[in-house]
Design a protein that fits this description.
With 444 residues, this protein is of the alpha+beta class. 28% of the residues lie in helices and 25% in strands. Strands 6-7-5-15-16-17-14-18 form an eight-stranded mixed beta sheet, sandwiched between helices. A six-stranded mixed beta sheet has the order 9-2-1-13-20-19, with helices on both faces. The protein has a three-stranded antiparallel beta sheet with strand order 3-8-4. The N terminus is likely disordered. The structure holds flavin-adenine dinucleotide (FAD).
Length: 444
């Protein structure tokens, strides 16, 4: 890949498609590097999943590139206001590092009704967790294994008798999602970028395997490079531009909000509750975290792909998934799951809200970040499989490196304080062989 000289960047035009967290941080980083950036958003910024997210962040992942990426992202978000040059008087909270607690069940303590296969999967999940913690620690993560007594001591509301152990990452937590894309675009604009809302990309002029300009509902926009950061819409955008088919499936996901009707712990203990995952492995994975005075809850479920979803579909909640439709809806199934592990929490109030949005799933749960197979100046930055908000700083770093050509032997070197680490771009190649690529097991 040709390396763009720093001086040559000035005036090189990059068109970023998508007004979410990815588009915002990519625009800001490119603008900082001297590129002339135009960001295009079909509606208003935040129209997609970035405003509908549970907004959690963790470095406890299974694929080394993701672990390292999230270490960088956690660092980026803890320095967000400095890095984006926010005014000192206007720095609302951006990250709360309450930690991530994965609870693992003891197969020997499981209910008699448990099938032998469930016992086996619980045992193998714990074995895999221990190996992963070793890998994460090797990459510099502050992650530890906790025994059930320690879990009980730190979080007395958890029934530790059913646990074999837990993994604990105190640097993990959750983000103020709206601020990410608002401040990201503001920084890009301060550096001269143009952000055009209500400009939907509908097609492209292609010459010699390169895009010369995109057509939008607000006119033609020419560029030297183009970035597809259109989230769950990105396969459609790639198709409209004449790019490759992207292995991304939009799947509906729901969030539930529980309002306590009585305190079950001190306000300080509530505010400090970690993101907690109630069991890992097949049929498990319900999770919760505090969201102000309420508790945010979620759990992934089987659902049909919706490749042609509309903007309005993002907020459509079928009765079977809406908390207000009887106690047999999915929200109460999530509460029942919590009840196995933290009965006091599960029974401290009722559900009072349901929200929804689309995950953009890839076959291996790892994003697609790289140059299109057909168009040599189109970079895809999509397919975040439920972790695009936490990945956005790393997405911006990799996308910018691809465009500047700051890639050595297929790898991107992280900036200080992680300059000893390299991210292999092949792990994110949009054209990779998903039968062979490493899979993320714990996509929640
Ligand atoms: C319920 C839920 C919970 C989640 N929880 C987490 C979590 O805890 N942690 C985490 O990191 N991630 C989470 N995610 C995932 C995360 O929110 C997304 O991966 C992330 O927001 C993607 O950001 P993005 O900028 O890539 O895409 P988006 O925010 O979806 O932005 C894409 C933008 O592209 C625009 N667009 C589409 N087509 C066009 C076009 N033709 N022309 C111009 N613009 C176009 C859209 O309008 C949209 O604004 C969750 C998602 C959901 C739905």
């Amino acid at each position: 890949m040709a390396k763009a000289q720093a001086g040559a960047r000035r005036g090189t035009r990059v068109v970023v498609i998508g007004g979410g967290a990815s588009g915002a941080l990519i625009s800001a980083r490119l603008a900082e590097q001297g590129f002339a950036v135009v960001a295009l958003e079909k509606a208003a910024i935040g129209n997609g999943s970035s405003s509908r997210s549970a907004a959690c962040i963790r470095a406890q992942w299974g694929v080394a590139e993701t672990v390292m990426g999230m270490r960088y992202s956690e660092w980026f978000y803890t320095h967000f206001h400095d890095l984006l040059h926010a005014p000192l008087a206007d720095r609302p909270w951006l990250i709360k590092q309450n930690g991530y607690l994965f609870l693992y069940e003891d197969p020997d303590q499981a209910a008699p009704a448990w099938q032998p296969s469930l016992r086996r999967s619980a045992a193998s999940a714990w074995a895999a967790a221990q190996a992963q913690v070793a890998m994460q620690r090797k990459l510099g993560c502050d992650v530890s294994l906790l025994d059930p007594d320690e879990v009980q001591r730190r979080w007395p509301h958890i029934d530790a008798a059913r646990l074999i152990g837990a993994t604990w990452g105190p640097a993990d937590g959750f983000l103020n999602h709206d601020l990410i894309y608002r401040r990201g675009f503001a920084r890009a604009q301060a550096l001269g970028a143009t952000v055009r809302q209500h400009a939907e990309v509908t097609g492209a002029e292609v010459r010699g395997g390169r895009i010369v300009a995109v057509q939008t509902t607000a006119g033609r926009v020419a560029g030297d490079w183009f970035v597809n950061a259109a989230g769950a819409w990105s396969p459609r955008v790639s198709h409209a531009l004449g790019g490759m088919a992207l292995a991304i499936t939009p799947l509906k996901r729901f969030l539930y909000f529980l309002k306590p009707d009585r305190p079950i712990m001190s306000a300080e203990a509530w505010a400090a509750l970690p993101m907690t995952i109630y069991g890992v492995g097949p049929g498990r994975g319900a999770h919760s975290r505090p969201d102000g005075a309420t508790l945010l809850l979620a759990w992934s479920h089987e659902t049909d792909p919706e490749p042609e979803f509309t903007d309005a579909d993002q907020d459509v909640i079928p009765p079977a998934f809406h908390h207000a439709h009887g106690i047999d809806n999915y929200g109460y199934a999530v509460l029942a799951e919590l009840d196995h592990f933290a009965p006091a929490l599960a029974n401290c109030g009722g559900l009072h809200a349901t929200t929804s949005g689309y995950y953009e799933m890839t076959p291996d749960g790892v994003p697609l970040i790289g140059i299109d197979a057909n168009l040599s100046n189109l970079v895809h930055a999509a397919g975040f499989s439920g972790h695009g908000l936490m990945h956005a700083p790393m997405t911006a770093l990799l996308t910018t490196a691809i465009i500047t050509g700051d890639v050595t032997d297929g790898a991107v070197t992280l900036p200080d304080p992680f300059a000893d680490h390299h991210i292999t771009l092949a792990a994110f190649d949009p054209a990779r062989d998903f039968h062979r690529s490493p899979h993320e097991a714990m996509v929640l």
